[in-house]
Queue: 2 jobs
Job 1
Amino acid sequence: MDFLRSAVAVVLAVYLAIGSGFTAAAVPAIGTVVTTGAFRLNHATVRSNATLFEGAMVETGVAQARMDLTSGARLDLEPDSAARVFGGHLALERGAMRIDETGGSGALHATRFRVEARDLTIQPDASATVGRIVLIGTGRVEVAARTGAFRVFNPGGVLVAKIASGRTLALELRLKPGPTRMTGRLVKQDGHYLLTDETTNVTVEVAGSALTEPVLPKALGQRVEVTGSTRSGATPVSGASQIIEVAQVSPVPPSSESAPPGGAPAGSGGAGDTAPAGAGGSAGGAASKRALSVTMLAVIGGVAAAAVVGGLAATGSLGGSTAPPVSR
Amino acid sequence: MFYSRLFAGISVFGFALALGATLRLAVAECAWRWGSGPGAGWTLTLGNARHFEDLAERQPVSAGSWLRVAVRLNPHDSIAWMALGLAAERDDDMEKAAAYLLEAEKVDRQYLPAWTSANFFFRRVNHLQFWRAASRAAAISYDDMAALIDLADHREPNAIAALERLGESARLERGYLHFLIGRSRWREAAAVAARLCLRGDPGDRELLLNFTDRLIEANEGEAALAAWNGLHPLPGPDRASHGMLVNENFKRQPSGHGFDWRVTVPPPGSVHWEPSKLKLSLADSTPDAFTLLEQRVVLEPGRYRLRFEYRTEGLAEQTGLRWTLLQGGRVEASSPAWAQASKATVAEWYFPVAKAGLYALTWIYSRVPGTTRPEGRAQLSLAGLEMR
């Protein structure tokens, strides 16, 4: 009898010890959140710091919250913002956030960490990407890359923008998919016609009956604006993200502001002219003195995009935007 | 002569202090502007740890250095110890992180250091230290405990086991009950509610009543019954059981909660209760179909008899008043419309129940086609249910 009791006690003890160990392994933390004030975590008020779990809802008040994820991602949720945090991505629901990867070495890139904002997916494209993402109004998302670069995808996973270091882009998902509109230099490569949009820096393959005599000889090598629609299901040539069935090709006069594909876009003033995103207040002073404007509208994959000069994302100013609406 | 010298001495001393303070502020300003390294700390030694905490916040790269200066200046500054611990954790120096956080707990016996330690030891999967810090945080928490409970729940998903480890206080049980209700974890919530019931604190009555309502909404009949009876431990008309109505003689004013009567006032009419009577007034603009009275009851399969006493005044011959039995919003049984009764009349309605579960017995007004709109009163003075 004593033996039986001892055996039961041992089994129970082992079960309790191992059981709690299994429990711990079942619910791993995905990171920490630290702030100087109070914030809300899963709708509960928390001061100073907390542990993050998959799907945690973080809402900041007057102070920003710094999130260090076990994946190596380091993110700042700015004051009066809200986001749902996961191990591999963050869904920004209100306000603004910064991606600050200085604490890790290529971690964001390595783990393919992404930010979701208003149905757009923003993914760091370089190993040391630092930038800022701001939700403005009811539909706009501004993405500023300070260092590194971002790729932006529409809900269908189509690449709609590549944002290079020093650039800010305003993006807005259109409710009704309209025609694609892009501006850039038309080039021929291995028998295919390619165009890299000056605003979004996205290269597409262009095709269609509109791209024949007598338009083609005049347009090739020139700066043109094309409108058309995406040819779904078709595989584009290497280096292009999609095939555009062109409906119209219009020549655009060469502009002194225009830049070659892959370089600084027209109107953006190039990397050096744009206040560094993520620098927050330090960059805000000079940048805010510049007139805020949105230039070079492009529509691709149902997303309207425009380069922002002295972008709000760069200045840190969320209210009182004087920029014209992105969508038309 | 002596006094004038004394006065002069005090004045000089005062001026010297003021000069020293001014110089110190000037140096602090310079250190701030030019971002001097920790070596500048010696000029600001008069308990100005906060300055270095600010620096650490603004310059994350050298946060560790600034915070070490801060804790040297003020070893009782738990905020700095905690920040140092978290910074060490970020730098993967877990041994130092643990030491700093434990030091924060040592110098400050309030909630925040214990909460911070609990989080750190959770992440380090150090069960012993986690439960020690978490139970300490639970004991001294003075506001929202939801985050602490959430953390403990991630470590120990069994609410009762977690409660036992955290300290079993009434506050904690209340917090856990809210937490479990929010996650629709009814069985565990019922177990925590039972503990809270045993404490017998009148302040918990509303919470437990609301909990019973939530269980009923979630169709958790048995758990709701247990929670309700936990609030009514003594035998009497308020206790609920299978196939029995609560407060069947209307001796008590219907509370509108749990298994008691729930009265809905008809939009332009009124309801008046007096001991053993419930009077409802209907106006001609009362909707054609309306639930006047309702009670939730747990029923087993079988045949039931509802015996009730009613009286009407001013209503049509076919009053439109009838009983219905609902489950999940679906009508399972419905009585005929009761005839006008100018005197108190006892009537019976038999109905079958095929499936065990939580039902709603409702007394409704449903205008019989061809009759005039209601303008009158109805009175109920008894409603007893029994299995036949």
Job 2
Amino acid sequence: MTFSPDTVQVGDKLPTLNLPAVDRTVLALFGGSSGDHNPVHIDIDFARRAGMPDVFAQGMLGMAWLGRLVTQWAPQARLRRFDARFQGITHLGNVISCTGRVVEKLVYEGTLCARIEVRSTNQYGQTKIAGEALVALN
Amino acid sequence: MIDRKWIGHETPASVLPIERSRLQFFSKAIGETQPIYTDRDAAQAAGYPDLPAPPTFLFAAELDSGAVDDLLAKLEIPLAKLLHGEQSFIYHQPACVGDTVTVTSRIDDIYDKKNGALEFVVKASKAVNQHGELVAEMRSVLVCRH
């Protein structure tokens, strides 16, 4: 649904954000631009020594995608809080969908806000990140 | 075991100048295509002085400065054992190109689960701008798997 602060209702769904399959390039670009140079995300030799089958996505890449989900719906200036719980490793080849739903309207620090449940899920239905965002409505 | 003496430890300040080319690179990496995040004119038309940092960008401050690496070394957590458990942000005002954000953190808690197989470090951070105004508060739960 298109964001309209006056008409947001509990149950409204945010437009889904569908990402391309995770590949090594996106992990390298995110490592460089985010400042997270942990080689476990970019160097297969290091990842294997760490006991992982291969490199895997930075948690904050998944959270950044959820941030896109929210800010493509409502302007970032309305974002008051944003929380993520990383529930599973996002592997190469995972095709992530980010979804969100308005679950409550509440007053937060004097401002009417929508509480949004957000989630990122891979193509097998496995949740990778569950989180929440608070978006100001006035 | 991570030494519990680090509860209460505070990190030195990490100073992050918000730079346009860095934000454009970050947007490219996350696939962000909304013009306000890459085009100054679009950002200004939306009421920002320049490109705004996207919601999770300030996490970079303590990575760039080396503060996270220093902290992991002190806590004796190898990168190979590190996972990110939770992350939260509370926003007070935007950080835009031209701003300089300073982040300081405190270790609020260290605890374990599964008889020590997993250890958790809770880090609380404050980000202020060059005017001393609070920009954001962050909270990270880092996980060390044994």
